[in-house]
Amino acid sequence: MKMRTVVTGVGHYLPARVVPNSDFEKRLDTTDEWIRSRTGIERRHFVAEGETTSDLATRAARAALDDAGLNPDDIDAVIVATSTPDFTFPSAATMVQEKLGMTSGFAFDVQAVCAGFVFAMTTANGLILSEQARRVIVIGAETFSRILDWDDRTTCVLFGDGAGAVVLEAAGGAGTSADRGILAADLNSDGRYRELLHVDGGVSTHTTGVLRMQGREVFRHAVEKLAVTAHTALGRAGLTEADVDWVVPHQANLRIIKATAQKMGLPMDRVVLTVQDHGNTSAASIPLALSIARHDGRIKQGDVVVTEAIGGGLAWGAVVIRW
Ligand code: UT7
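The joint structure predicted for all components is written out below.
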């Protein structure tokens, strides 16, 4: 028997305020038409004053726990993938642990920007396979609205806030690609590209900073790298693109998503799209999309789901899951 990490629950939370592209037309030299045609984004959610990443993360975690039929006390570990934690420390994950009323287990954050959920899932899989934990909740949660330069039309129209979460549990498998659970992953980063997408401040530089991006360059790396990392992870799982039921990509830009699907030889009706409604929610985008496609009945038990993402670092990777 081989130990596997199976997804047993998924949920999400989006802040109440919805901002359409037209809102940006009022104060920036931009148009709804430009944003839609270049990115696929139509609207995004933004947090209210006083609402924080750990608030969103806790709501998403509760939804995922309900879906799994579990209580917070059943969970051994909480991992939050985020680049926008409430505080420098403690981690957003320990704040979620406290808000859920958990008094045992352990919690920590993973920071790999837009690839954070892929990195956190892989970390959780390692914890379960090494028997450090039997049940882990992995949350992607972000409030990128707090780190945007509202005068920079090349970045502020692209991002949104939100959170998604999955409950992962140890289960037995046969050790074949027919098993349910995380079948394989591929992680990469290359710090030589750090200038392409970064926040120009931080604790150690005495500033808060705002997001800066060389969009065209990041676009080029995304189109080059995402299909490759998905292919590598599929190969490790003993699968090919032909076995994939659903691609759940990081939701940054519809054109990147389409180009990647084309490289993978997959039609767009096998790709889950939420970018139009959420914008780019960084580490939250994949679990948000997983939750939506699971709860509307698209993702079914037994389906092969490939998630892939790239972001600041650059950091990128893919995880193959049999749901
Ligand atoms: O989540 C992490 C990963 N991030 C990404 O994957 C983002 C990757 N990059 C992208 O999605 C795209 O590069 C963007 C959406 C950021 C930009 O699209 P693009 O097609 O690469 O446009 P561009 O940067 O080449 O700019 C084209 C033109 C420029 O004007 P000129 O120089 O041709 O006169 C920009 O100044 O569009 C202009 N532009 C805008 N115009 C209206 C840039 N932003 C805007 C805007 N409204 N909001």
